[in-house]
Amino acid sequence: MKTDYFLGLSEEGFHRVAYTEWGVPTLGNPPIICVHGLTRSGRDFDELAEYLSRQGRHVFCPDIVGRGESDWLRNPLHYTYEQYIADMNVMIARTHASQVDWIGTSMGGLIGMVLASMPQSPIRRLVLNDVGAQISATGISRIAKYAGRDPDFSSIEEAMRYFKSVLDGVGKLSDEEWRRVAERSVREISPGKFVSKTDHGVKIAPAKSKMAWQIMLHPLKAIEGTLFDIDLWHIWRKVTCPVLILHGKQSDILLPATIQKMQQIHPQTDVIEVPEAGHAPALMHTAQHQAIYQWLINSI
């Protein structure tokens, strides 16, 4: 693994977008870009990226601006999907490839879906980790309670307990795996003081993006649990590449009825259930890595 960055551009000027890179380019295999969820970072994909690189794949895992090792924006209102999509277009260009495979958890999946829906999209195959064309109001409400609210911690053990409580949908993880989650989520700024690697301003992002404005424009649909349906169903109908949905069976974000409708609209959509997980599977286990890799090599 190596680390690097590129420069994204916002109304504030240039900002650094950090990423990890695994493996090297191989003939006939497009690079894979893995993009994390709302309050997470690209290090969530360490185990998956390492596995895929051992199979000969070239993998990039960016930290979306405001997270991980990327810069934070001065104005939290600039944390929008439009900004993330523009930055990820630069990430695609950085791979120097004409096509890429995309693996996205939650927010990262939505970014991938939008990019895959566009004319001449470079996304060849799309893996959506527990996210789809309709988002449950219950799940959004739960995430809103902790997004951008991470406290400071006096130890990694304290951070572990916190992330176990707010990320309880990731599935069954060992204590060592939870330690890795915590260590990737915080930085020690002084002896005995650990702080989040996610800007607290990130919590404002969904409410200011065009997609999430549908909540406010269509409150009755929000009550029914149909939050982004107008924009995202419209986007989903434009996706033509093969898609794999990883569904946490206990998810409060991606519901079975949404998956069924997605498959009706786009028959080239496969589904893998993750029985022990909710939102969203951590993708830290070898069985999940193998399933994703097999789908990537068999789906075209």
UniProtKB/TrEMBL annotation:
Domain of life: Bacteria
GO molecular function: hydrolase activity
GO cellular component term, pick one: membrane
Residue span, AB hydrolase-1 domain: 30-281
Keyword flag Transferase: no
UniProt KW Hydrolase keyword: yes
Keywords recorded for this protein, A-Z: Hydrolase
Name of protein: Pimeloyl-ACP methyl ester carboxylesterase
